[in-house]
Structures are given as C-alpha cells and as structure tokens.
Design goal:
The chain is α/β, with parallel strands linked by helices. It has two domains: about 220 residues, Spore Coat Polysaccharide Biosynthesis Protein SpsA, Chain A (Alpha-Beta Complex), CATH 3.90.550.10; about 70 residues. It contains ten helices and eight strands. α2 links the parallel β2 and β3.
C-alpha cells in the first residue's frame, strides 16, 4: 500500500447536482475535518448537462484533496461509481450520494467502527425511507424479498452508503463484469461487516434521476447477475405444461372411447394463448441472459473519462 495514501477516500457519483453540490461538498468536508483531515474527495460527473463540472472544478477542499472525473457521457450511476472506486487510493473508502440523503454526520461512527472494532464493511441500511413515494417503497421491498429468495443475498433496506476497507475494494476490483450492481457485488464479497441504521434525509435540492424503467432494469441486472434460477424456471414451466398436456390427452382419449364428443373450441384457443405466452416469457428470460453474455464478451470499457481535475490543497 502506498504510504502517501490518504486515510479515507469518499466517492460521490453526480448527475445534474450543480444547484446543491457545493453545499454537499462543504458539509462532507466539515464532517471529515473532525476526523483529522486526512482524506480525499472523488467526485464523478456522470455526463451532467448543468454546471456540476464547473462546481467541481472551482471547489476548494481545504483541508484535504479533491479529484474530479468527468465521464464522456451518461453511463449510469453504477458505472460512475465504478470509475470513482477504481481511482480511490484511501485505506478505507466511503461511497455516498451527492444529495445529502446519506447523512454525512454518520461518517465519524462509520470510521470508528472500522478503526476501533475492525469491521471491514460498515453498511448503512435504511431505517426509514423518508418522503419516498409508496410505489418506490413497496417496489424496493418486493425487490429485496425477491432477490433474497432467488439469489440468497439479503439486500432488504440496503443502500449504496458504505465504508469499505482497502482489501474489500481490492477484492471488488477483481470482478471485471460490465453489468455492475454495486450493492449485490458488495454483499456477495462477504467480509466482517456491520449494519448501521439511518433515516433517509430530504434531498438537498433537485429531484431523483432514477426513472421507473431504470429501476426495473437495475433490478433485472441485480437478479440475473447472481442467480441462474430464472433459467431453471423455464425448465420447470416446460415440465408443468408437459404434465398438463399428458393429463388433457388422457382425458380426451377417455372421452372419445366413452362415445362423448370432444367439445371446447374456446378452451383450445385459450390454451394456445397461454402456452404461447409462456413460450414468449421463456424466450424473454433466455434473451436476458444472452444479452448479459453479449455485453460481457464485447469487452468494451465500462466507462470513458473525458476530463479530470486533480489538485492538492495548499
């Protein structure tokens, strides 16, 4: 490990946070200053269209250091987070949002648990989801239960707000997949960890950039990246319908032998529709996994940097 490495690296992915980013950075720097000032801030601009990069460039991170990274376009939060983690040099790394919904005052306790009690991961979990709309709350809860059932990984009330020891980050960096799901990857790693509950604060400004489509896409990534159970579900559905077809065939033969006319044109049409729907659903599951393979084998970079800003404070 580099002897000149800072004690703490704080990674903040940003997207159109210009209206409140300076307030966020000053709040974080204030909290970190109480811990001795041996830190760096890594701020990743995920292709913002506002003045986010301008704020990053002029912010004075005294004491400490600020390192800004501007991606060439919007790659998504997961890959912006990846860019920050791959450039972090601290002995411990904290990941948090840039809208102050992850309370900076928790940093001191997270660092204490890492230093004094030797926890390798301190993960903040949502004790209260704040003013989040009920559809998002129930959607998150449903995803947590589904992910635990399918992938055997508990992500209930999990967040990206975490502190990781350097060796945890090194282990995370050894996973080169391009369909990144940070929470799942972090949970899969293991290590000695502790959960720290927190209440989600109000946003410092602006609004969430996550659309329902993006959340659903992330949920699919989170499930297909850690379990092949949906593929086996296709096999079980095939066996179920095979059994149903055999039963229906036996019933039809018995009815014919007994001299009863076989009726039910509507039933036949409905069965065809149901079977066709199941086939399309099965093809969709297979297509999802094939698309994941396709993305991985192309071997493209996970993100592209267009500008960097790296200056030490005086």
């Amino acid at each position: 490990m580099n002897s000149m490495a800072p004690k703490l690296s704080v990674v903040l992915p940003c997207l159109n946070e210009g209206c409140h980013l300076e307030q966020t950075l000053r709040t974080i720097v204030e909290q970190l200053s109480f811990l001795g000032g041996d830190f760096e801030l890594l701020i990743i601009d995920d292709g913002s269209s506002d003045r986010t990069w301008e704020v990053i460039g002029r912010f004075d991170a005294t004491p400490g250091r600020i390192r800004g990274f501007k991606l060439s376009r919007r790659f998504g939060k997961e890959l912006a987070l990846t860019a920050g983690l791959e450039h972090a040099s601290g002995r411990a790394i904290v990941v948090m949002d840039a809208d102050l919904q992850h309370p900076p005052m928790m940093l001191a306790e997270m660092v204490r648990l890492w230093e004094s009690e030797s926890y390798e991961i301190v993960e903040a979990v949502k004790d209260h989801r704040g003013s989040e709309v009920w559809t998002s709350k129930w959607g998150a809860r449903a995803f947590g239960m589904l992910h635990r059932w399918i992938c055997n990984i508990d992500l209930q009330d999990a967040s990206d707000f975490k502190l990781m020891d350097r060796k945890v980050l090194d282990a995370w960096a050894s996973m080169p997949e391009r369909n990144v799901f940070f929470r799942g990857m972090n949970a899969w790693l293991g290590f000695r960890r502790i959960k720290l509950p927190f209440k989600v604060a109000e946003r410092a400004g602006g609004q969430t950039h996550w659309s329902q489509t993006e959340l659903i896409k992330l949920a699919f990534t989170g499930i297909t990246a850690y379990s092949s159970l949906p593929l086996h579900l296709v096999t079980w559905m095939g066996l179920l319908f095979f059994g149903f077809a055999v039963s229906l065939g036996i019933f039809t033969v018995i009815a014919w032998l007994s001299g009863r006319a076989v009726e039910g044109f509507t039933t036949v049409i409905l069965l065809q529709l149901v079977i066709a729907s199941m086939m399309m659903f099965s093809l969709g599951i297979l297509g999802t996994y094939v698309s994941r393979i396709y993305e991985e084998v192309k071997g493209r970079p996970r993100y592209i940097l267009s500008e960097t800003s790296d200056r030490s404070s005086t």
